[in-house]
Amino acid sequence: MCSCLLQKYESFLPIGPNTPLITLGEGNTPLVRSQRLEKEIGCGELYFKLESCNPTGSFKDRGMVLAVAKAVEARSQTIICASTGNTSASAAAYGARCGLTTLVLVPRGKVAQGKFAQAMIYGAKVIAIDGNFDQALSLVKSLAKKHPVTLVNSLNPNRLHGQKTAAFEIVDALGEAPDYLLIPVGNAGNITAYWLGFTEYYKAGRAKKTPKMMGFEAEGAAPIVLGHPVAEPKTVASAIRIGNPASWQSAIAARDESGGTIDCVSDSEILRAYRLLATAEGLFGEPASAASVAGLIKLANQGVKMTGKRIVCVITGAGLKDPETAMMERDGLWELPPDLAAIEEALEWN
Ligand SMILES: *Cc1c(COP(=O)(O)O)cnc(C)c1O
Hints:
It is built from 15 helices and ten strands. The chain has helices at 5-8, 37-41, 60-73, 86-97, 113-121, 133-146, 157-163, 165-174, 189-203, 223-226, 248-258, 267-281, 290-301, 323-327, 340-346; strands spanning 31-33, 45-50, 78-82, 101-107, 125-129, 150-151, 180-184, 212-218, 261-265, 310-315. It has a six-stranded mixed β-sheet with strand order 1-2-10-7-8-9. The chain has a four-stranded parallel β-sheet with strand order 5-4-3-6, sandwiched between helices. Helix 9 crosses helix 11 (248-258) and helix 12 crosses helix 13. The termini are far apart. The protein binds pyridoxal-5'-phosphate. The site of pyridoxal-5'-phosphate has 18 residues, from helix 9.
């Protein structure tokens, strides 16, 4: 099978004869079954969709490959985006691949180290502003109106079309849509894209049902749950630190049409799920990714019946992107002299 996502799902994508079928090996990510959490929760089957396995380590690559292909098709020379980190990493990679200039606006000092490193090494021009993501997005929207550049945030519909392919892959892998899809919500593009994918596959007869869409914001950045924008969003999960989501209305539509919910989880719930995912399942997602797992645990604790249900949690980004948060975990660390007795003593092996 070809490793080109655009080619594989061409008939579902806005691809014409002049669209370059570029690829960095995005998509076709693993759907890994849970070993322990599934039993603890008591659901039928629990899977993790490892979007962390994309070329730059997040699902953003699925949307970016199409957005950049369309930019190349339109003979654009420059792509621009606002980012909490992963969009900039992805834009910079695909921009480099296609010889475009990539310009990204980020909140200064608020981007996880790995993501920042990616934007730099792929050669993006990075403008760090003393402001948050929402302000950065508003600025790039103005810049894209005034200058001949292509906006590659999820306001660009090609982003969502590319990202919906993850829903196709889940149905292709399971042979049917799951009962529930659990997903972190930041700018709300991804929940919108998955719902688009599930409904398109349903209409095409590739699935007999659609899942309930269960989105999770971080408690300190929960505009959709609160029903109003949050001026200063706060959470450890930087990828969902967003106070005024661009795809707000379509996320609500996804929730309501699917019979799902959009709720929030606290930072301590996120960090507990982040560690659990790593220690109980061997999966290292970034903190924002753990919001889906924290959401699952919250639902289970609320007594939502999941017996016999098939559940998919989307692991949106790779843990290594955010080493600072991972390094807060020091429980298994001993710093000792190079001495056998000292090591045996620390391990209580004497
Ligand atoms: C972008 C991102 C999100 C949030 O997705 P939205 O489409 O903005 O809702 C969640 N997790 C990770 C790792 C991300 O990069």
